[in-house]
Amino acid sequence: MIGVFREQDELGRRLIVILRGFPCSYGKCTFCPFAIEQSLHTSKVIFDNREIINNAVREKEEYRPDRIAVFNGGSFHELPYDTVERLKPLAKNTVFEVEERSEFITLESIRNLLDYYKPEHLVIRVGFETFREDIREKTLNKGMPDSELKRVIQVRIEAQSRGWPVSIWSYLLFGMKGISEESVAESLRAFKKVFDGVIAVRYKKYLPNHPEPVPVSKELRELLNREADLVDWGGEQWMIGEKKGYAPE
Questions:
Q1: Segment 67-99, tens digit of pLDDT
Q2: CA atoms within 13 A on the CB side of 159
């Protein structure tokens, strides 16, 4: 799924740039499939990402997106410097979105991203997935206890109180065995109170040892479509491991 993708949805005209990443430094979430596309070889990560970013710069000029989102199957702060530097033309004066694990979200890291990239607005997505600590830690093995959730909430408050152009959004996982629809609705309401946006993501099973998917009720579908800022229903265009968009060979 690495490559460059045009998307137009509730968030506007978006250019989605999915880079090759190194394996996530945490790497223990029970449901995550992104190791399939990551690499331990620095040269492969760097040279694949150079090609992807070059394509993204050309696409930006042609497509004129409202937002540019950069993902790497892990945290933005785990990308190599060569990649980080080459993203500058994409980020400057745009709404620039990145993903981070919670431990990388600090006032210092936010300030550094703003100073380095000079975006119009910085959006940081974080995968808390559920507001329920028991599900987050026992079922999903996220390594993000409530103390970490509260810390990131406070970082957001402090950053915005300083007038920094930054928003923090949380992912909300649904459609997986072990995550009840009641807890999804509860988490949606809670996340909306403490973060700037909520992106609901339907779970897809990619590996045999991953949890089982479960059907999604009409009631939950309607609630998510109505209340979440974006719902990712997991269409074929986002198949992990499949070559789509402008991707390197």
A1: 999 999 999 999 999 999 999 999 999 999 999
A2: 27
* Token duo for residue 163: 């007038």
CATH fold of 3-238, please? TIM Barrel (3.20.20)
Q: What is the mean pLDDT of residues 142-166?
A: 98
From 52, 60, 59, select the one nearest 21 (Cα to Cα).
52
pLDDT in tens, 99-143: 999 999 999 999 999 999 999 999 999 999 999 999 999 999 999
**Residue 220: left (phi > 0), alpha (psi -120 to 50), or beta?**
alpha
What single-letter DSSP state applies at residue 87? T
Q: In angstroms, rounded to a whole number, what is the distance separating the alpha carbons of residues 181 and 223?
A: 10
Containing H/E element for 189?
helix 181-194
Per the DSSP assignment, residues forming a β-bridge with 176 are 213
Q: Are 190 and 131 in contact (CB under 8 A)?
A: yes
- In angstroms, what CA-CA distances link 2 with 55, 71, 110, 196? 12, 9, 25, 27
What tokens were used for 21?
């990443």
Q: Which two tokens stand for residue 176?
A: 């997986």
